[in-house]
Amino acid sequence: MERKIFIVFLILTFSMVAVFAQSLDETLEKLSGNAAKSYVGPIVSSFGTNLNGGWFHKSPKAKFMGLDFELGIVAMGTFFNDEDDYFSTSGSFQFNHTQASQLTEGVDPNVREYVIDAILQQEFDVTMQGPTIVGPTDEYMEVVFPAQEINYEGPGGVSGSEYVDEENITTQINGLLDEAPALPFAAPQLSIGTLFGTMLTARIVPAFDVPDLGDVSYYGFGLQHNIKAWMPLPMPVDVSIAAYFQTLNLGDYVTAKGFTSGLTVSKTFGPKMFSFTPYAGYMMETSNMEFSYEFIVDEDLDPVNINFDVDGKNKSRITLGTSFRLGISNFNVDYNIGDYNSVTMGLAFAF
After folding, report:
1. Per residue in 339-348, pLDDT tens?
2. Contact yes or no for 304/28 (Cβ under 8 A)
3. Distance from C-alpha of 196 to C-alpha of 192, rounded to nearest angstrom
4. 283 and 224 Cβ atoms separated by less than 8 Å
């Protein structure tokens, strides 16, 4: 029964990730440059924090060789910060035909279409502000077009310039998560050890196809080593060094990567099958998301290939948690403190 729950939960989790990626793809098709980076920034940091969490809940046994096997699921939730709902930035922006028509309402009607064409063929330095991907769904990004002369050319050698006033343009870019308090994620996790106090932990979701998105896959692995395996003096607690990396691919559209390493401390109380283990850790981490998509300015214009990447803000975390062992079941929960705070939980069959 528990195995079926694990499988259903994982299917739902990665299905939600795929649906969310499709919605984000549709939104980013209308964005480029600094606006796109600012818009996705909060999700990069929160998603990276999730990927780097939940990897450990104890130290490996300090033995040359022993059997320690766990198979289960880890769930993470990273809390968004107050400032994540909105962004304000400046950069280049290319207007579509509807927006260019709004900008030129006060232009001479005889040359207006020429001015619109001129606007469509170039990018403008503007200021942009509005909801991020985390922000409210009923608010939209605004672009401030600075007043300036627009040079145009028409048929038969007609040319000239028209002054276009400053204008605030409301786009169709709105928030997707509607001020959600946190971003959830989950993954299967296998841990096996020990060899000279070292445990291997892996996460693997084989590639599966999502219509209109492509193959979705996730994998990661890492090692945790208990230094008591070679320390000549007894130690009251288990101290380990650890390092983990992971990669999530969402078609050819998004690649998310994470890496974390640091020091963990734990102490087990009670017999093996009925025990609890407080644990803590200090981990350094990095995360990054690469985006690749077609920016569709207007139906009458060829799409533009956009490629950019954004680094997550979380650079380190302090982890505090407890693990409970009851027979062959192990449950753990911890809280992580960093630039982005998070909670992780794990449930596994342990042998």
Report:
1. 999 999 999 9
2. no
3. 12
4. no
Residues 6+ apart with CB under 8 A from 176: 20, 23, 24, 27, 133, 134, 137
CA distance 166 to 147: 4
Question: Is 50 exceeded by the pLDDT of residue 8?
Answer: no
Q: Is the pLDDT of residue 51 over 90?
A: yes
202 pLDDT exceeds 70? yes
Q: Give the structural domain span for 205.
A: 2-80+181-350
How far apart CA 218 and CA 162 sit, in angstroms, is: 53
* pLDDT surpasses 60 at 1: no
Domain-terminating residue out of 174, 193, 211: 174
Residue 137 has pLDDT above 50, yes or no: yes
pLDDT (average), residues 287-305: 80
Distance CA 341, CA 21 (A): 23
User: Are residues 304 and 209 part of one domain?
Assistant: yes
Instruction: Please tell me the total number of residues recorded for the chain in this structure.
Output: 351
* Angle subtended by helix axes 33-51 and 2-28, to nearest 10: 170
State the number of CA atoms in the 13 A half-sphere of 321 facing the CB.
27
The CA distance from 279 to 324, in Å, is 11
In sequence order, the β-bridge partners of residue 255 are 249, 290
> Does pLDDT of 276 surpass 80?
yes
Average pLDDT of the chain is: 87
Pairing of strands 254-266, 182-195: unpaired
Euclidean distance between CA atoms 51 and 8, whole angstroms: 20
Predicted model pTM: 0.85
Distance CA 306, CA 85 (A): 24
Omega before 13 within 30 of 0, i.e. cis: no
The overall longest dimension of the chain from CA atoms, in Å, is 91
The answer to whether residues 204 and 186 belong to one domain is yes
* End residue of a domain, out of 116, 140, 174: 174
- End-to-end alpha-carbon separation of the chain, Å? 18
Q: The tokens of 43 are what?
A: 């999700």
